[in-house]
Every structure is written in structure tokens, then in C-alpha cells.
Amino acid sequence: GIQVEQSPPDLILQEGANSTLRCNFSDSVNNLQWFHQNPWGQLINLFYIPSGTKQNGRLSATTVATERYSLLYISSSQTTDSGVYFCAVRGGGADGLTFGKGTHLIIQP
Amino acid sequence: KAGVTQTPRYLIKTRGQQVTLSCSPISGHRSVSWYQQTPGQGLQFLFEYFSETQRNKGNFPGRFSGRQFSNSRSEMNVSTLELGDSALYLCASSLEGIPGNTIYFGEGSWLTVV
To answer: Would you call B49 an interface residue with chain A, using a CB distance cutoff of 8 Å?
Structure first.
């Protein structure tokens, strides 16, 4: 099945810093989403982005489908941005969304 | 517009028992999918239902089953519970299914098997 690799696995930043999270996938996809998992476990949808670029406030994402990677940018980080960020894709014959292992982001005040 | 609603939020069961979890999708969404999250295996796809039919199934034993009702609400059942079934079970809904549609998740049901 399709493989999803996220990097870095852990990231510690000071408030106000910018960050880039990466997601590599091994096959063509027909769905790619970025999620933020809050401390209570809920996956909050950030972007649906199987290709192209989108922006929402301080967050933006870019997927280069031909090169099989996606990037999530967080600018001017706030402590509330802390948590785990997941990339999830569907493709390569898989039936559901395949998730990466996530990037654990800690924003220190 | 209400989001995806899952019940119960927390539950504790004993090995060998069975459990049923419920999911109400966003109004108008016809697809419901289920995922299991554990510290060791991460997030794994269980199954997807669309218009009361199971459309896709992940690599889980037959003890895991589900169904979808005519109002798109879904239930999943785990029989003969094992300690390893302790997990966060997440339900997601979308308009028409996973390909090409944004998936929205509920808050999850935390299951502990003792």
C-alpha cells in the first residue's frame, strides 16, 4: 500500500517562529489532507490539498503531486499551535486514508 | 451546522465483552468511515460506509464490524474484546466518500479494555 512519511517527528520552537512540516508519499493520490490533533484527540481538518497551494490565516500548504510531497507552513507560531500534525492520503490502491506518524510540535512561550 | 458526533465519549469494558460505538455524520453527508488510533500502530482505517453499504474495509479481524442506517448514522461493533483493542476510535464523514472530498472527524470514543 501507499507509504506516508512525515518529518520532522518532533519540533520545538519559540513563540513567533515559523515552521515547515513535510509529508512524502509513495504513490499518486486522490485525497491529501492535513490535520491538527487537539489534546482531547479530535482531528481538526486544516487543508484538503491533493495538489496546489492554499492559505488560511497563518497557515498555508503546498502539494506538488508530481513529486509526491506536501508542505505545511505555520507562520508566527502561537502556543495554541502545539499538538500533533498529521498528513493523510488516499491512493496507491488503498481504500481509506493512510496517515503518517505525525509531527509533534511544541511552541514554547 | 453540527459536526460529527460520536457516542459514548469514554467507556471501559472487560475482556471478552462486546462494544458498540455510534456516529452521527454532518447533515447531508452520506459517507462515514471509521479509524482506530493506538500509540503503537498510529491511525488505521477500519471501514467506510456509503448509502448503507460497506464500500471499503481495512485490515482488521472479523471481530470488527459496522453498519450504516438510512439516515447515514453509523455504528461499529467490536466483539470478544481484547486488551489490544484499547484505543481511540474516530469516526469521519464526507459528502460522497474519501476520494475527492474533505473528510471531517468527530471527537472520538476512548475505549479501555481491562
So the answer is: no
CB contact under 8 A, B45 and A43: no
Write the DSSP assignment of chain A as a string of letters: ---EEEE-SEEEEETT--EEEEEEESS-EEEEEEEEE-TTS-EEEEEE-SSEEEEETTEEEEEEGGGTEEEEEE-S--GGG-EEEEEEEEETT-SS-EE---EEEEEE-
- Mapping DSSP to helix (H, G, I), strand (E, B) and coil, where does residue A80 land? helix
Integer Cα distance of B4 and B20 in angstroms: 17
Residues of B in contact with A43 (CB under 8 A): 90, 92, 105
CA–CA dist A25, B5 (Å, integer): 30
Question: Phi/psi zone of residue A83: left (φ > 0), alpha (ψ -120 to 50 degrees), beta?
Answer: left
Nearest to A95 among B57, B105, B108 (CB): B57
d(CA A10, CA B39) in angstroms, rounded, equals 15
Mean pLDDT of B63-67: 97
Higher-confidence residue of A39 and A83: namely A83
Q: What's B29's DSSP letter?
A: -
- How many other β-carbons are positioned within 10 Å of the β-carbon of residue B16? 10
- Res. B99: pLDDT tops 80: no
Give the range among A89-98, B50-59, B72-81 with minimum mean pLDDT. Answer: A89-98
Cis peptide bond prior to A39, omega within 30° of 0:
no
- How near does any CA of chain B get to the CA of A94, in Å? 9
